Amino acid sequence: MLLIKNASQVLTLEGGIRREEEDYELGIIEKGAVLIDGDKIVEVGETSELRGSAEHVIDASGKIVMPGFVDPHTHLIFAGSRENELSMKLRGYTYLEILKMGGGILRTVRETRKASKELLKKEAKRRLDYMLRNGTTTAEAKSGYGLNYENERKMLEVINEIEHPVELVPTFLGAHALPPEYESGEFIEYMKEVIPKIKDLAKFIDIFCEKGVFSADESLEYLLEGKKHGLIPKIHADEICDIGCTKVAVDVGAISADHLVKTSEESMEYMRKSNIIAVFLPATPYMLLSKEYAPARKFIEKGIPVALATDLNPNCYTESMQMVISLAITQMRMRVEEAIVASTINAAAAIGEVKRIGSIEKGKQADLIIMDAPNYMHIGYHFGVNLVEKVIKRGRVVYSRR
Predict the structure, then answer these.
(1) N or C: which end of the chain has fewer CB atoms below 10 A?
(2) pTM, whole model, 2 decimals?
(3) Quick check: 287 and 316 in contact, CB under 8 A?
(4) Cβ–Cβ < 8 Å for 245, 233
(5) Can you give the residue ranges of every domain in the chain?
(6) How far apart are CA 16 and CA 295, in angstroms?
(7) Residue % of the chain over a pLDDT of 90
(8) DSSP 365
(9) Contact present, 69 and 78 (Cβ < 8 Å)
(10) CATH number assigned to the domain with residue range 70-349, chosen from the 4 options 3.20.20.140, 1.10.150.120, 1.20.120.350, 3.30.43.10
(11) pLDDT confidence tier of residue 286, bands split at 50, 70 and 90
(12) Beta strands of 220-367 (E only): which ranges?
């Protein structure tokens, strides 16, 4: 058994998904302790009141203990990089202009198609190491840089086969961009034929619903086909334009709609009546040199549950949920409590794992991090550094700064 004791604060996040603005509280236990048996949490409370004992003890004096970060939107598997595109953005080129010039997603597709599974695993493990050290214990991982059956399957096999403490949840993103060898309509038909061949390798199905990429009608058609084969819909929505993608998300019963920079008031009202999670990716506009971020306050005020994610990809190359939290606070005006909730329990809900991870509660999986900070208000305030001192995954210390 493992006992973590004397924490200045244990942030339990107990109580499930947060929706209403006043519900974004953290379940703080001062001078707290957590007792772990195997991979499960068996007791949580004040150190002086904990009844159980353990062979292994971690003294967390002066530090906070909280659930491991859950990253519900990543493009973890890819080959190559696109650092030159940053200078193109500085010269005024837009994301869609770079894509039309053969850069962006299509450039990564070319590199990923050439890459072996061994190379993709090696690169992914390196990124996962960074994620783990920065406190992420579970992450969603998408395909989407293959854009044909052989390479989409290759990417999903890598996600399923990779061995690493960070737990991965696979998403099929076959409709990520339009490859040059297809017209739009015929590509969606082709990807619909791919779905039954890969359905056992993924939990979710996703599409980039956007002007100049895939329309709302195409997205609905594709996601419904995935749902027919047991895949849970997700959707890239309203990143650059609002073309009705959030309505598609609600109509198809998607678990989350992600990006949401351009979501209209009307679309928010439509979302409010559903159980969908709004996933914000503030590192993406940051790297697009944009001053426009998702209107987080409006979503929260309407009672739409929100989550945060890195959007790790060659266009937005960060593995740090701590960086994302800082951006959410400073650029989207989320309160610290809201950003922490959005990175833990609500993020777990965005990948369908809220009953198992995302909070520190008796019976849940023991995924925790110890942060070198005296209280939770330092998260997002003390930025540009890694505050994580230890990571516990399934009850085992898998990273320690010392």
Answers:
(1) C
(2) 0.97
(3) yes
(4) no
(5) 2-67+359-400, 70-349
(6) 23
(7) 93
(8) B
(9) no
(10) 3.20.20.140
(11) very high
(12) 232-237, 256-259, 277-280, 306-308
